[in-house]
Amino acid sequence: MSVLLRQIARYAAQKVASNPEAREKVVKAARSVFVEAKQVAKEENRAYAAGRAFRRAFDKLQNSR
User: For residues 58 and 52, what is the distance between their CA atoms, to the nearest angstrom?
Assistant: First the structure.
């Protein structure tokens, strides 16, 4: 199973690397994930903070449809 996931990840990375617009979107998403992870790491109750971060991301996805 992990071999298949690795191949899928490699394929997706190659496709993103070849498209400048997609590359910009991935970089922007990675930066926002990094900011959220940094914020979660600062919290005393990390599980609660991670749940809130997940909820914010889920709500953004729902609102963008």
Answer: 10
pTM for the model: 0.62
Q: What pLDDT, on a 0 to 100 scale, did the predictor assign at position 14?
A: 92
Compute CA distances 62 → 29, 48, 51, whole Å.
Answer: 16, 21, 16
DSSP helix, strand, coil percent of the chain (3-state; round to 5): 90, 0, 10
The total number of structural domains in the chain stands at: 1
Print the domain residue range for 46: 20-65
- In a domain, residue 1? The reply is no
Distance CA 35, CA 59 (A): 17
* Rounded Cα distance, 27 and 16, in Å: 10
Mean pLDDT over 33-41 rounds to: 91
- The answer to whether residue 15 sits within a structural domain is no
